[in-house]
Design a protein that fits this description.
Blueprint (H helix, E strand, L loop, with lengths): L2 H23 L8 H29 L5 H6 L19 H22 L5 H29 L3 H14 L4 H4 L3 H8 L6 H18 L22 H15 L6
Helix pairs in contact: 1-2, 1-8, 2-5, 4-5, 4-6, 4-9
Length: 251
Amino acid sequence: MEQHEKFEYILRLGDNALVLGQRLGEWCGHGPALEEDIALTNISLDLIGQARSLLDYAGQVEGAGRDEDKLAFFRDVRQYRNVILLEQPNGHFGDTIVRQFLYDHFAWLFYNELMKSNDDQLVAIAAKSIKEVTYHRRHSSEWIIRLGDGTAESKEKVQDSLDRLWVYSGEMLTPDSLDKKAQEAGIGVDLDVLKKDWHVNVKGVIEQATLTLPEDGWMHSGGKKGMHSEHLGYILAEMQHIPRAYPDAKW
């Protein structure tokens, strides 16, 4: 696997954590309850921490002098490599929880497999991240069950969220040529194997929540290659405004 391909692969992982962390940060001060406001903010901070580690390492692999801040704040929309699911709007609480639930089950399986990588730095990042992701998965799964097996209104809303966001889940689980190269090089994860376990785990929680699992069909894709929805531009405009306005500022 060539150096620029390894850089792109690690960049994908960092961008996933960064964009979702930024999205969840929007809930700060707006959560449905104080405890949940704090929980979502803490999960956001965990994801930003994971993004820092991954983007810092991506910068080292690239060797072009870009650190985590340069990669986070000074790239344009088409240069981001996160999956499209993670840039979708927070919507109501059910939308946020379903988005988080779909990603958390993926991330938990992914980081467990990434700890088998032949890249020591990725193994170290995965080992630290899995502790956080284990909590994230439990948190979102418990909320899926609570909302699905709750009132008629909460069940209807979270089922609608699941139906609308399901079409974005396939991109996480479908390997492209770069995913396959990383897996063959012993650096990355075999998404074909992970996909089976993801479906089993997600289905189990959905059934416990008395919800209906959507059928697989056409799925959105393109985020891993820089083709995004209109939403990512708004996220970056807010996130990047201060660093770009004052590029030489120091803490």
